[in-house]
Design a protein that fits this description.
The chain folds into 2 domains: about 25 residues; about 120 residues, Sandwich (Immunoglobulin-like), CATH 2.60.40.2230. Helix content is about 25%, strand content about 35%. The protein has 3 helices and 12 strands; from the N terminus they run H-H-E-E-E-E-E-E-E-E-E-E-E-E-H.
Length: about 200
């Protein structure tokens, strides 16, 4: 079977056009991705550790990384009422301020006086105690930062980013030793009650 040269040339020409045109969409997508990736985040916020058990004394730390050219000059965390704040520490150059909860606002810790410059990482630690009867749930700790240009960013539901979450591992259970002590106390009280009953005059 003979194939005309003209038809071969047209087929090759059509194939080359298809190859040239097909990468247009992926290339455009790459450009959009590059533009999006070039926009820096205001900061990266986490809380460590991410779990706590009832009745625990635990050192928490708000961890802040600054990927922008504008320094961060204030960090504030809202602490749920389930956590009793025992104290707060600060990086060099920073000062913490603890504000008690009111009827309309939660307890907070605010650090100021220092700077988190571009590509710097800082930890803002504080000591808390979780109540012994705390149930298994998630505690949300909203964080706010303020930068040197006056702009503010909130990590909270509906804010700039998701708020850090602290997971309560569960309620306290009675250990085997505790159960033995309770049982022994119950037996002792029962014996005392029987003795008093026997000593009553008839």
């Amino acid at each position: 079977m003979r194939v005309r040269r003209g038809s071969v040339k047209r087929a090759r020409f059509g194939l080359s056009l298809a190859i040239d045109r097909f990468p247009v969409i992926p290339r455009f997508g790459l450009l959009l991705c590059a533009a999006a990736c070039a926009t820096p985040l205001a900061a990266q916020i986490t809380v460590s550790p991410r779990q706590v058990a009832p009745a625990d004394f635990v050192r928490l730390a708000v961890q802040v990384t600054n990927p922008t050219d504008t320094a961060i000059v204030m960090v504030r965390v809202e602490v749920p009422e389930a956590l009793a704040i025992l104290g707060a520490d600060a990086p060099t150059g920073w000062s913490p301020r603890i504000t008690a909860a009111t009827d309309t606002s939660p307890q907070t810790i605010e650090w100021s006086g220092g700077q988190v410059a571009r590509h710097d990482f800082r930890e803002f630690p504080f000591l808390v105690r979780l109540g012994a009867n705390a149930e298994r749930t998630d505690l949300v700790l909203p964080v706010r930062i303020r930068r040197a240009d006056g702009s503010v960013r909130d990590w909270r539901p509906g804010g700039y980013g998701p708020a850090p979450v602290l997971v309560i591992q569960g309620t306290i259970g009675i250990t085997a030793r505790g159960a033995f002590v309770l049982a022994a106390a119950g037996i002792g009280l029962s014996a005392l009650g029987i003795g008093l009953a026997l000593r009553r005059p008839h």
